[in-house]
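>> received
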Amino acid sequence: MLVSAILIFVVVLLIYFVLKSRDAHIWFFSYLFRNRKKTKQTKHILFCFVDHYEPMWGGADEDTQLNRVRKWRQLYPKLTEGHYDADGKKPIHTFFYPEEEYKKEYLDIIQELCEEKLGEIEVHLHHDNDTASSLRDKLRNFKKILYENHNALSVHEEDIKWAFIHGNWALDNSLRSGRQCGVNNELKILREEGCYADYTFPAPCEAQPSVANTIYYATGQDGKPKSYNRGIRVEVGKKVDADLMIIQGPLMWNWKNRKFGIIPKIENSDIRQSNPPTKDRVDLWVNANIHVKGRPEWIFIKIHTHGAQDNDMDVLLGDKMSNMHTYLETKYNDGKNYILHYVSAREMYNIIKAAEDGKLGDPNEYRDYILHSRF
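>> returned
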């Protein structure tokens, strides 16, 4: 009896240390008790690809930076050829462009893709040791530049509206080091400056909220970091007074990809050379079952990448990505069990808000429900 108890204790302790070593203890229970119940209705798959797009990544010289942007301009239209969702729309890429890397020439090129309905531009920011005042200045200046110079972002009730990804995952000063942000009540500032939703997560570190595979509202707390750690789930017919909607991508255990044949790999919806978009991964994204509470037939999938990193572009702009789209357009667009919709970050938000307001039927009708593209 004692031996069995000791053995159980050792196994539990080992599991805990494995989880902690990968910061998975933060979200483990949310994953364990997630909603696994599947609706028998036809499921609409809302597929969104967001990009932490950083042309200056790695301190590259200007020629390399420009070539990275030009490569996307040249190859992304070719990648999308022949790929369509149920609404006749091609895959669309949302470029979250960093404020601190702004260069008009680069965004002019990306803007051309957007004018071909292949992309939209939103706000990305790496910052450190900021204050509330300096953060506001950066956001106000950058949104004005994007809006006036590149036809980007949206307008609602005369305010410029935009989506956000925080650099280095450090939303709301969430890293243990206290670096890469500096502003504890960042959520409130983002909302006041026009941010309609955050698309930072999932994160491969301690910044990940304890709530996983969920679309929810969070409220900033003065003097406290990581105030988005918990929140109120977005639900049909439920109005919430909060600072920011958090739209997460799938965060799962991949039991078909195991280290040493034992420890499952973490599926964090990141696409890169070392983690290409296989069929097994697509199935996991769907099985994450991320939806607005009360509208289980609309499944939201947000995947992400760092699209300007040279080693990953062959995957992101080549056959492996094309094959992923083919798989989505066959298995998850049969018209009976599944209907596929390629959406931008803005469109995904609009459809979430439509679900919250009790809208039914085809989510394609709600792509521009609140916010409209300027492209």
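>> The mean pLDDT is 93.
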